[in-house]
Specification:
With 186 residues, this protein is an alpha/beta fold.
Length: 186
């Protein structure tokens, strides 16, 4: 199974983010999964790629040309797809995915996981997805999810479609038990 991992291009300011990103990647590889990610060498993205590769895993990166030209692409990946735009990057990462997970990250990470979540709600895919909630990083987004539901903007069967997981074991269990919501329309 290919796991698309969204993660920060920065390391964050707490060592636990790096530690958990590396552990998650190693455990995904040990479970027989491949990693798909944004193709960068920096930040938590680089930590995920390096840890998965060191564990003997297959890692596929997807990166826009302008970031390759800025020399931020990881040069040691199993496979690197170079695309023209960020939109193409997100689409290819989604197409390659069998499941999605977001690790801590900034606005790009948030935007990517929320777009994949919107696609799930709209019925564009039926793939499992989760937030790796390192040290409560995603707690506020999870509260916003509850607020959207309580305010009538998410249906009850959609409320738990972007759950938090504590580690790779919980993520693997989520994948095993995944039941996608019915498409909102159609």
């Amino acid at each position: 199974m290919r796991i698309t991992v969204y993660a920060g291009s920065a390391l964050g300011n707490r060592p636990v983010y790096q530690e958990e990103a590396a552990v998650f990647a190693k455990e995904m590889v040990a479970a027989g999964h491949e990693i798909v990610y944004g193709g960068g060498a920096a930040g938590l993205m680089g930590v995920v790629a390096d840890a998965a590769l060191a564990a003997g895993g297959r890692v596929t990166g997807v990166i826009p040309r302008h970031l390759v030209d800025a020399e931020v692409a990881h040069t040691g990946l199993t496979e690197l797809h170079i695309v023209d735009t960020m939109h193409q990057r997100k689409q290819l990462m989604a197409d390659l995915a069998d499941a999605f997970v977001a690790l801590p990250g900034g606005v790009g990470t948030v935007e990517e996981i929320l777009e994949a979540w919107a696609w799930l709600i709209l019925g564009s895919h039926r793939k499992p997805m989760a937030l790796l909630n390192v040290d409560g990083y995603w707690d506020r987004l999870l509260r916003m999810n509850c607020r959207m539901s309580a305010s009538g903007f998410l249906r009850p069967e959609e409320t738990d479609t972007l759950p938090a997981v504590a580690d790779a074991g919980e993520f693997s269990e989520l994948i095993r038990l995944w039941e996608p919501p019915p498409p909102r329309w159609g």
